[in-house]
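Batch 3, record 17
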Amino acid sequence: MIVEIGHFALALALGVAVIQTVVPLWGVARQDPVLASVGPAAAIACFLLVSVAFGALVFSYFVSDFSVENVASNSHSTQPLIYKLTSTWGNHEGSMLLWVLILVLFGALVALSRRSLPARLRAGALAAQGSITVAFLAFTLLTSNPFRRLVPAPAEGQDLNPLLQDLGLAIHPPLLYVGYVGFSISYAFAVAALIDGRIDAVWARAVRPWTLLAWTFLTLGISMGSYWAYYELGWGGWWFWDPVENASLMPWIAGTALIHSTVVMEKRDALKVWTILLAILTFSLSLLGTFIVRSGVLTSVHSFATDPQRGLFILAILVIFVGGSLALFAWRAPLLRQGGLFAPVSRESALVVNNLFLATACATVFVGTLYPLALEMVTGDKISVGPPFFNATFLPVVVPLLLLLPIGQSLAWKRGDLLGAAQRAQFAFGFAVLVTIALLAVTRGGPVLAPLGIGLGVFLVVSAFWDLGERVVSRASGAAAIWSRARGLPRSIWGTAFAHAGVGVTVIGIAATAWSTEGIGILKPGQSLTSGRYTFTLESIAPRTGPNFTEEVARFRIRTGEREMKPVESMKRMYTARAMPTTEAGIRSDGFSQAYVSLGEREADGSIAVRAYDKPLVLLIWIGTLIMAFGGALSLTDRRFRVAAPRRAAPTSALPQPAE
Amino acid sequence: MTAQTGFPRSPARKGMTRKQRRMVMIASAGTVLAISAGLVAYALRDSIVFFYGPTEIVEKGLTPGTRLRLGGLVGEGSVVRSPGQKVSFTITDAKTTVTVNYTGLLPDLFREGQGVVTEGVLEAPGRFRADSVLAKHDENYMPREVADALKKQGHWQPGDAKAGADAATPAAPAK
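Prediction for the assembled complex:
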């Protein structure tokens, strides 16, 4: 019964979403404030209905209702409760429902946000958001219904894919989807602005918090996914340039460009047309990512079971929304007034350079991801484009960008002083050069890229705070004065500093991977294997039984130099329901470094194959992304987003503000 | 700077109009794009790897030393392990069989009779040295290239992925 209520609520939500799309637009066209004000109410109703549907699905997983096909194929009565619940989105249908839930959540948040938005803009944005909701609700109901019943109901479920039975599944997809889907708001506002035919700083200020929010979550989502792959797949890789990873990286890069270009638009009323295009492209890349993951056109470790019908449906959605918005852009963009002027050396120009490099980086990832598909369609040849391609194309674009970043961020608006900016960056640069030389001297004969990369990271971290330090310290005396001066700076300036420093920290972590070492050996209890700074000694191998698996547990003692670290366990598991083996790596953190050990085949004589790694500074990769996300969150709390945006100077529309 | 911006005139940029500035912008954007397009074209020539099934290797007459991805089914009873993590097995599409040598740990889901993709170098006709064996992440998931390669040899019915994989794997219970 509850399942049918969920199904019904989802169908009802589709109807409401149609209303949300059509009526506000009609209201805007007929200048009828009552019709235009239907949007917020419909958006909230839509959110409540989809919540009911999602709740119903979670509930059927909670009670292990195997008469629901989705539950029967992806859950098992012996699964721990947390994995029963996360199984809800550990499959195509359920994760699609989560996608839609987050989509309508954003619609409801726009409807509820009390910031004074121009009425036409809000109505247009909610209508655009509504049309996306219609498309994906229809997709879910028609091709991926999670509420389908099985008759007769099986007595037991088939279990969730064991690789997904991990806390990572509870964290990674929701964060990622909030990021992916959050960009739909920027898209909706861009479409609304094009329909409205005007765009200004008020638009930028309205869009920026949503973009920042989505970017922050996408940063966390990608980062958590990467850490999950790192510890779950058992060989210590953290980024594979897999099509699905690229699918999340492309909107992230475009979104990063977008949060920078909206700053220009907000402060200086420039780069309007480009910003609108970027908002459209960012969400288009999110849609493309959805297509890549769901259609199975590209071979990837993340593939869901493939179904050509679904692929076609999403391709149609992709074509309609990308093509439609780009056509609207081509038609309306010439109407948008050109914005303010700026000198070639200025913060604006620096941000243009930022956008140029980010767009290029995004394009290289795009080519590398889709080229195999294009080639196969044209010639029938199957190829794989792997890390060598991306190292040769992505890095040469990103490294110059990172080198220019510290100079760009200290240029003044309108007209900057290149010499002054270079002088401000020189301390950080000198310090980074010293660090690099010192590291090169200490690790003579080792990989050269690691010290160079770490130097770049140090340059970014130090320069991120150098300007702020000057502003806070140089003119203030005494700790109290410094503190009050630091607090007096806008939060968004701190946010920028933290985000840029986070990039530096991640760069340091990535660079240090050049030093990581791998050791492979076949060990009997009592024997040791050394990798880098760590010596792993196999203590014992013993069987153990978990809730829905049996496992062989290998216990290792770890020594580094004269120091004995806490022991770790690495497991070889066999999940009984699917008869599927998995490997659980044993990981011990040592400062920012990690000692990593995972198991291979068990030999006939009782010994076991072991892979051991020394991963220096590896944690900095993810700590850096957390700092980036913290910077994003800090910017979100900036005062200018909390207080009402200034009203437009001229009366903007014939529509009065709708009563809420 | 032009008068309209209200900036103090700087001798170096005197007379740079809006149009000229736009040209500078477009030219620098073009430069960056051209350089990266060059990088992309170069990398696409040198760092991509073609995928072939066992029969295609013969048909295309690939010469030893070619780097490629080879996919197909792991031959039943073909896996031989020797000391030092050395392992050899065959990859077959039921028409042609290639012997693969590999040193290292095999992924969890590597089994006889199941689909597999390996990357490495063709040493001699019918002999392949793999430096990586790619893991699948799902029991039911057949790499698409493998499915296509098998289809070409007429050993594949659409929608057969699950049944085929299970039938070939006695350890897996029927689903």
